[in-house]
Design a protein that fits this description.
Pfam families (chains A, B): TetR_C_24 (PF17932), TetR_N (PF00440)
InterPro entries (chains A, B): Homeodomain-like_sf (IPR009057), HTH-type_Tx_Regulator (IPR050624), HTH_TetR (IPR001647), KstR2_TetR_C (IPR041490), Tet_transcr_reg_TetR-rel_C_sf (IPR036271)
Protein name (chains A, B): TetR/AcrR family transcriptional regulator
GO molecular function (chains A, B): DNA binding
Helix content of chain A: over 70%
Shape of chain A: elongated
Order of helices and strands of chain A: HHHHHHHHHH
Distance between the termini of chain A: 53 Å
Keywords (chains A, B): DNA-binding
Oligomer: homodimer
Number of helices of chain A: 10
Low-confidence stretches of chain A: none
Structural class of chain A: mainly alpha
Number of strands of chain A: 0
Largest interface: A-B, 33 and 33 residues
Largest sheet of chain A: none
Radius of gyration of chain A: 19 Å
Chain lengths: ~190, ~190
């Protein structure tokens, strides 16, 4: 097995443990045990639990940031931009729910420059979304509602999708994508 | 000061500490210190941290349950029922954001019959909401979208309102009530 594959395996295993027990309660020993390897062998790949957290959280935050930057600067309508934001959250939730749980629950355990970097990305993400919404209100593409209510109603739903989607067995990916987009943009009435 | 007032004070103080530090990290000693009383005096009012958690979480869950039961059995349209559910969440969020944070973050620290009772109330609440939505779809009062997508999109937004509402200084209560109801029911387009 390649070193990078092993590292990815460790990260995935740790993300699952963080979700089950909470970041603070998990030790490097727990991770080694769950992977059925010696602690010394774990330390060949990863320096600390903190390093794993950085790899999980920063990696996902950078992906959100990069795609949001593309969306904001794209030459499309406001509605299409919002639809792309919705699909971005669904994409990442379907691909990596454990990492999203880790991002949501444990980002505050980041330290120093990583914490600053994460908060900066999160604020810029919200600011980019805000600009899309404000421009849409200005253009009469979307309703003249309080922009913070729009932003945080949508983000609350999208950011917590990982909590419930996995439990709804009858719900297909296509239904999720189409119906969530419809409900968030055009409502349920 | 009356005994009951003192108890309420203890509960409010504990809820704030749980929010700041996390339930697991808070001790009875911390609560006594924050209230500037002796630990022995605290124990005159409250047996344990667990008792405080029960008082906070079960109290709010019972309020949600009681109002939801009234809404479900009321003789009004589906839209009016959903509007009442939205206003219920906003009411409790505005009145007691710390207790809602405690309910959301710490309910899993309940034990034994209290945990069972809480989970039962939560499931019945979601089931009541589901019945409102399914009846509305059947009556063509609301769109034929996947009911789980509707339920959990709305509940995710309503249940996490306490996280961001307090930070938005320009947002009035009236705007929050009207605009959130409009966005969730009729969308933003």
């Amino acid at each position: 097995m390649k070193v990078n594959d092993r590292k990815t395996e460790i990260i995935n295993c740790a993300a699952k443990l963080f979700k089950e027990k909470g970041y603070s309660a998990v030790t490097m020993r727990d991770i080694a045990q769950a992977m059925n390897i010696k602690a010394a062998s774990l330390y060949n790949h990863i320096k600390s639990k903190q390093e794993i957290l950085v790899l999980i959280v920063i990696d996902i935050a950078e992906e959100f940031t990069a795609v949001m930057n593309d969306i904001v600067s794209s030459e499309t309508s406001t509605i299409q931009k919002i639809e792309k934001v919705i699909q971005l959250h669904i994409d990442i939730t379907l691909r990596n729910p454990e990492a999203l749980a880790c991002l949501n629950n444990d980002w505050m355990h980041l330290t120093d420059e990583e914490l600053v970097y994460f908060i900066k990305m999160r604020e810029e993400y919200e600011q980019n979304f805000r600009e899309i919404i404000l421009k849409g209100i200005e253009n009469n593409e979307i309703k003249n509602l309080n922009s913070e209510v729009i932003i945080f109603s949508m983000l609350s739903t999208l950011r917590t999708l990982y909590l419930w989607y996995g439990k709804k067995k009858g719900l297909t990916e296509t239904s999720l994508r189409n119906h969530m987009s419809e409900a968030l943009l055009r409502g349920i009435v």
